[in-house]
């Protein structure tokens, strides 16, 4: 079975506070985009997991999928899986989480498990915070630690240029850094701003919503990596309406009304649209 595993961007990301259980309370509007990994999944009595880039074998997140699905269903599940990576690793585009969600759905079909959506989401949440989003891959308001998902019927008209600077940002470092920064911030104001943007989106005021979005991680990532400021300014000179990090980075998103010719010296760029 061959499946396409999409990526995502965070159209704004606010970190409200750190919970007692160690997770952070977040607010975000996430959209799936048409930058895909290609996954080939076949039934096999032995598990083999290969990837064109990144972790292989039991170090790959999809190994956890097979393990947890075996535990949840009481059925030993193995598969021969090959992932052709197109989504940059460690860029904040959710490639690993998307791979996990795609494999959950594919295994459900291959093994004819007939799992309901509640069980599928339970498995997805055990694997990672972004995995439930990719079970649906629909535009969604995301709250909690990333597990509270509410679909919203919105189609953004923009072209998104994704700039991967050829390095990743450690998610744990980013969350530790933001935790120290937000201790004395008024999270209620962030909540109000987030709700305002959602209302603007619902009203179709996409440009105004775009103007107001923020990613809290820019406060720590841009300080640690000052080249982002120059990169943002470069894209604005090319006509970008807005630039922002997606997730904890490292990918920078530049938003355009139409595609333009861009030549860069560092990193990779991908033109994408909302699915």
Describe the protein's architecture and organization.
This protein has 275 residues and is of the alpha+beta class. It folds into 2 domains: 2-151, Ribosomal Protein S5, domain 2 (2-Layer Sandwich), CATH 3.30.230; 159-272, Alpha-Beta Plaits. 36% of the residues lie in helices and 27% in strands. The protein has 9 helices and 10 strands. A hairpin with a 6-residue loop joins strand 8 (242-245) and strand 9. The chain is globular and about 55 Å long. The relative contact order is 0.19.
Features:
36% helix, globular, single chain, four-stranded antiparallel sheet, 2 domains, Alpha-Beta Plaits, Ribosomal Protein S5, domain 2, 275 residues
In the CATH hierarchy, the third-tier topology of the largest domain is known as Ribosomal Protein S5, domain 2
Report the uncertain regions.
none
Query: How many domains, in number, for the residues?
Result: 2
Give Rg in angstroms. 19 Å
Tally of helical segments: 9
Structural class: alpha+beta
Overall helicity: 25-40%
What is shown here, in short?
This protein has 275 residues and is α+β, with helices and mostly antiparallel strands. It has helices at residues 61-73, 95-110, 117-127, 131-136, 171-181, 187-202, 206-212, 218-224, 227-237; strands spanning 2-18, 24-43, 48-51, 79-84, 140-143, 148-151, 159-164, 242-245, 252-256, 268-272. The strands form 2 sheets. Strands 1, 2, 3, 4, 5 and 6 form a 6-stranded mixed β-sheet that branches.
């Amino acid at each position: 079975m061959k499946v396409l595993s999409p990526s995502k961007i965070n159209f704004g990301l606010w970190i409200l506070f750190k919970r007692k259980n160690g997770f952070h309370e977040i607010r975000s509007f996430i959209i799936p985009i048409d930058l895909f990994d290609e996954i080939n999944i076949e039934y096999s009595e032995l598990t083999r997991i290969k990837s064109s880039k990144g972790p292989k074998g039991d170090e790959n997140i999809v190994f956890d999928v097979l393990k947890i699905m075996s535990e949840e269903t009481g059925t030993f599940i193995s598969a021969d899986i090959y992932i052709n990576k197109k989504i940059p690793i460690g860029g904040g585009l959710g490639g690993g989480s998307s791979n996990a969600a795609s494999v959950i759905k594919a295994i459900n079909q291959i093994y004819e498990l007939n799992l309901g959506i509640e069980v599928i989401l339970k498995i997805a949440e055990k694997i990672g915070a972004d995995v439930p989003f990719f079970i649906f891959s629909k535009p969604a308001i995301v709250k909690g630690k990333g597990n509270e998902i509410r679909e919203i019927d919105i189609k953004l008209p923009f072209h998104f240029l994704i700039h991967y600077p050829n390095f990743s940002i450690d998610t744990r470092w980013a969350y530790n850094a933001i935790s120290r920064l937000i201790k004395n911030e008024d999270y209620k104001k962030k909540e109000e701003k987030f709700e305002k943007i959602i209302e603007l989106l619902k009203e179709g005021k996409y440009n105004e919503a775009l103007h107001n979005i923020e990613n809290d991680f820019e406060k720590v990532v841009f300080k640690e990596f000052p080249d982002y400021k120059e990169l943002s300014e470069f894209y604005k000179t090319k006509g970008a309406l807005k630039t922002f990090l997606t997730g904890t980075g490292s990918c920078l998103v530049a938003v355009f009304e139409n595609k333009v010719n861009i030549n860069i010296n560092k990193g990779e760029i991908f033109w994408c649209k909302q699915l």
